[in-house]
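Hi P.,

Sorry for the delay on this. The queue was packed all week, but I finally got your sequence through. Input first:
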Amino acid sequence: MEWIFIILLGVAASALGSLIGLGGGIIIVPALLYLGTLGIFPDITPQQIVGTSLFTMIFTGASSTAGYIKHKTVDYKSGLIFLVGSAPGGIFGAWMVKNLDVHTFNLYFGMFVLFVSAVMMLRNRIKPLPYRKDSGYAMAYTDNRGKVHEYGFNPFLGITISLSIGFISGIFGVGGGSLMVPAMILLFFFPPHVAVATSMFMIFLSSIISSAAHIALGNINWLYAAALVPGAWIGAQIGVFLNRRLQSKTIVLILRIILVIIGMRLIYEGVTA
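Then the structure:
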């Protein structure tokens, strides 16, 4: 029964992750941590959870990117610029996670989950900074209604921010989209659909690099990965389908509530252990 649950977890996490550009790790990591505390998978360590989650993100990112390519919403150049920062950050994060025991990991990850929930709450209320065409890299996107959206960013600033986000991704196994999408929308003026699609493209590439580091460190449980990957591929396609047809406000609200509960529980476990 627990293996069926893991397959369904891969579907649900990747569908949500692909829908709003999170990547899915923000659901997979706490779920596996919780299963470990219940004794269902007592042998799995935080390091293995992070490595397995990031390996699964390769397939979530590949599947969702393939779907978004069909809709022409992926900004490849921006994704590659961000990758310059996120790749080394992810490798460093993968190296750092080996120093965390389960209780310390629960505490820090719980704090991170609460922070992500706050970011998701505020991202639709904060107005993007005024767009300047001389900011460096500039692009224009025409949506399906014919409206033209101009956006751009300073490449150095983009690489610096993605370096920090890559580190968080490598240490927590969350893909980085939970912070990269708001950054692209609020700081770099990306249209939301382009931000989500480009985030998934970047998650696909950065997860390959971060996963390679975790493989070298022996941080991947291949049995759990084999159960998660099929669901991740299917779930990502569901997320792409819903992204074109649904307003994600209700889903984001539900996810935010779930993240608050998860974050508080993880912090409690980290502090009281």
